[in-house]
């Protein structure tokens, strides 16, 4: 059955072909038939061309194909494709074929210019065989002198979009109505192709814009990721701790410094309540501080936490911190979280306390120096008159002699007290000599502990460096510390004293003018210890836990070490004992020897001037020196001393020696007067005296022109021995 159907179809096709050939032969025999066949062939060719153009979606290629195919269809020398611009007041040649076609592409004209403009404005076809100007307002250079032209409009679904313009028939002659029909039919077909290509181009443009938008968004995303990374690097790099939270007060971000201070990593802290990660308490009351995130979210304001706040790390470590917090707001100023910035100020606070301690001592020193100066002048008179009275009596068995000796002892104790007060004197410096510290330590410690139930164990390096110290002051430091240590061990025990060389100081909490070559002295006891709440006050003047203590011992100790360019610190635990650590700068100089003599030297003949503003001191000095056969001249201040010295210069009895007070309140003192004296006589011998034993001029008297010093109050033997040495 199937085979028969297939055979019948083949036979039908063969028969139709034969009939078609017969019909075609018959039509060729007549003029009308030939035209009909020609039209049929042209139409078939035209459909093929239109189909090829419609299948192209590249708009520029469509215009190129339209121009080329249109030129073939009507055998034109040139074909131009004018397209109306979106503003519809101009048109542009979007396609061209023929001679100089490339020059035409892209040219634009006003809508009323040329044959194309006429067709586009009137939406009508144009066919002519001779040049005619009546219908054109303005011609283009390509239309000048043309003998034949064919122009048809092109429409989309709504309006005219452009046209086809054929100029000049190949081989001469004019375009026919048949050409017009073909051109019109072709224009109708290609307008669809142009519309399709335009839609495709619009789609492509949309896709291109979408790609650009996607690319732009990717760039923005990359920039955001880069910015986020830079922010993360910045947060990791800054020296302060940073924590951010959300509006629920839960941790969102924590930087490296905050991780170290809090003891939580980013992964562990993220999502945790802030109070769990950032635990803060009052250092004074030990009570928890308010959660800063809650306060900021409630008030919307920037805050700073109160002073004396401690951060408790995850492992229990406690640090003093300074902290501030602020709300995080979005573009619409809505709060979306909180940021906290904090730093460890433990060392900073310790340094501030140390500086405050020094300033307290300086303030007390100003007062103490003034009191000690005046008191020393009184002691000069008291002690000197006691010495002089004892000298006059000359009999140890006299009933008054024991009374004078007791008065002398009391005066010497008062002298020691003034020396302690002078240690605070602002600007004073110790009289330093290069020495080995072990001898000073051992002598001082053994002296204090003599007869007690406490002993010292020494651990002193063999190669210990020398130091430049005032032996008397450093001895006072050691005695104060050893005395405190023995009082802390009422049941007896051992005090550990060690000395070692330190090449480099690495602790930033130690305030020193340089960071290398120091002697480190530690004095440790195993006594009752110092409570934590008072350990910061032990160096304060007049602070004492002893019923009979003056409160000056450790304050004086701190002042002496500071004036030696050193550092002293303390650490203690209740029930375990206390350790004091001292740093003193090492010296590279050789030790200096001091020769002492107790005998009064032989008396010679000389004239001595005493310059002092205190009448009691002048009178006493005159009595003492006169007792030993010296002539004495008295002056109240430097101005009078200069006048007297100059008057006596050429007299039979010139002044051989001047003893002048360093400080004259309201008048010229020794520092100014000696310059004038040396102008009169560069070889003048001048001894400087002062109640300020620690004054820089007293410590470095030769730099200021003085040949010797003597500190108030002084003993008779001390004064006479010094006068004899200078005069000889």
How does this model look, in words?
The protein is an alpha+beta fold and 728 residues long. It has 4 domains: 56-203, GAF domain (Beta-Lactamase, 2-Layer Sandwich), CATH 3.30.450.40; 238-344, Beta-Lactamase, CATH 3.30.450; 373-415 and 597-728, Rossmann fold, CATH 3.40.50.2300; 437-585, Histidine kinase-like ATPase, C-terminal domain (Heat Shock Protein 90, 2-Layer Sandwich). It contains 20 helices and 25 strands. Strands 7, 8, 9, 10, 11, 12 and 13 form a 7-stranded antiparallel sheet that branches. Strands 14, 15, 16, 17, 18, 19 and 20 form a 7-stranded mixed sheet that branches. The chain is elongated. Mean pLDDT is 80; it is low at 130-135 and 592-598.
In CATH terms, what is the architecture of the largest domain? 3-Layer(aba) Sandwich
As a percent range, the share of helical residues equals 40-55%
Secondary-structure content class: alpha+beta
* CATH overall fold name of the largest domain: Rossmann fold
Low-confidence stretches: 130-135, 592-598
Q: Strand portion, in percent?
A: 15-25%
Summed up:
With about 725 residues, this protein is α+β, with helices and mostly antiparallel strands. Helices cover about 45% and strands about 20% of the residues. Strands 7, 8, 9, 10, 11, 12 and 13 form a seven-stranded antiparallel sheet that branches.
């Amino acid at each position: 059955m199937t085979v028969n159907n297939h055979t019948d179809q083949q036979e039908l096709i063969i028969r139709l072909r034969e009939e078609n050939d017969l019909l075609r032969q018959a039509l060729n025999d007549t003029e009308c038939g030939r035209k009909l066949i020609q039209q049929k062939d042209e139409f078939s060719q035209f459909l093929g061309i239109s189909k090829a153009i419609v299948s192209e979606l590249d708009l520029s290629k469509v215009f190129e194909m339209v121009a080329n195919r249109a030129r073939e269809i009507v055998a034109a020398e040139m074909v131009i494709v004018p397209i109306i611009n979106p503003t519809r007041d101009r048109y542009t040649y979007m396609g061209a074929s023929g001679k100089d076609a490339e020059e035409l592409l892209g040219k634009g004209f006003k809508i009323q210019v040329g044959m194309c403009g006429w067709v586009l404005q009137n939406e009508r076809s144009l066919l002519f065989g001779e040049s005619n100007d009546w219908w054109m307002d303005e011609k283009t250079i390509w239309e000048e002198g043309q003998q034949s032209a064919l122009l048809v409009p092109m429409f989309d679904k709504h309006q005219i979009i452009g046209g086809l313009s054929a100029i000049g028939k190949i081989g001469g002659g004019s375009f026919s109505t048949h050409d017009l029909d073909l051109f019109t039919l072709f224009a109708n077909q290609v307008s669809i192709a142009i519309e399709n290509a335009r839609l495709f181009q619009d789609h492509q443009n949309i896709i291109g814009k979408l790609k650009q938008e996607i690319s732009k968004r990717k760039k923005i995303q990359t920039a955001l990721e880069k910015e986020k990374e830079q922010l993360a690097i910045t947060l990791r790099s800054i020296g302060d701790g940073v924590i951010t939270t959300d509006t629920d007060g839960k941790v969102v971000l924590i930087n490296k410094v905050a991780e170290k201070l809090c003891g939580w990593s980013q992964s562990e802290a993220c999502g945790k309540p802030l109070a769990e990660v950032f635990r803060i308490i009052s250092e004074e009351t030990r009570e928890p501080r308010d959660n800063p995130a809650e306060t900021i979210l409630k008030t919307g304001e920037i805050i700073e936490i109160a002073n004396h706040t401690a951060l408790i790390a995850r492992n229990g470590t406690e640090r003093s911190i300074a902290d501030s917090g602020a709300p995080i707001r979005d573009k619409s100023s809505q709060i979306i979280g909180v940021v906290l910035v904090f730093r460890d100020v433990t060392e900073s606070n310790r340094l501030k306390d140390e500086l405050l301690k020094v300033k307290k001592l300086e303030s007390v020193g100003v007062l103490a120096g003034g009191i000690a100066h005046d008191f020393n002048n009184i002691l000069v008179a008291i002690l000197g008159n006691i010495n002089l009275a004892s000298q006059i009596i000359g009999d140890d068995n006299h009933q008054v002699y024991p009374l004078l000796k007791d008065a002398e002892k009391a005066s010497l104790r008062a002298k020691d007290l003034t020396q302690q007060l002078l240690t605070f004197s602002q600007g004073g410096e110790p009289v330093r000599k290069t020495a080995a510290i072990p001898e000073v330590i051992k002598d001082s410690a053994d002296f204090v502990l003599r007869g007690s139930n406490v002993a010292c164990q020494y651990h002193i390096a063999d190669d210990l460096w020398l130091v430049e110290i005032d032996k008397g002051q450093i001895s006072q430091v050691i005695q104060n510390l050893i005395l405190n240590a023995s009082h802390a061990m009422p049941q007896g025990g051992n005090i550990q004293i060690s000395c070692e060389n330190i090449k480099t100081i690495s602790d930033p909490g130690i305030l020193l003018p340089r960071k290398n070559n120091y002697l480190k002295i530690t004095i440790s006891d195993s006594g009752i210890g110092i409570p934590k709440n008072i350990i910061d006050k032990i160096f304060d003047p007049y602070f004492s836990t002893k019923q009979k203590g003056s409160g000056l011992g450790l304050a004086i100790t701190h002042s002496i070490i500071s004036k030696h360019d050193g550092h002293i610190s303390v650490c203690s635990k209740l029930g375990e004992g206390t350790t004091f650590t001292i740093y003193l700068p090492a010296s590279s100089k050789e030790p200096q020897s001091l020769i002492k003599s107790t005998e009064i030297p032989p008396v010679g003949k000389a004239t001595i001037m005493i310059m002092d503003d205190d009448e009691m001191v002048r009178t006493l000095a005159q009595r003492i020196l006169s007792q030993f056969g010296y002539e004495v001249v008295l002056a109240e201040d430097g101005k009078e001393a200069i006048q007297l010295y100059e008057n006596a210069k050429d007299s039979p009895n010139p002044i051989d020696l001047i003893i002048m007070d360093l400080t004259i309140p309201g008048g010229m003192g020794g520092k100014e007067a000696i310059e004038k004296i040396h102008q009169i006589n560069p070889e003048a011998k001048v001894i400087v005296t002062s109640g300020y034993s620690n004054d820089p001029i007293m410590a470095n008297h030769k730099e200021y022109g003085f040949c010797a010093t003597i500190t108030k109050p002084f003993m008779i033997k001390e004064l006479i021995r010094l006068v004899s040495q200078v005069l000889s």
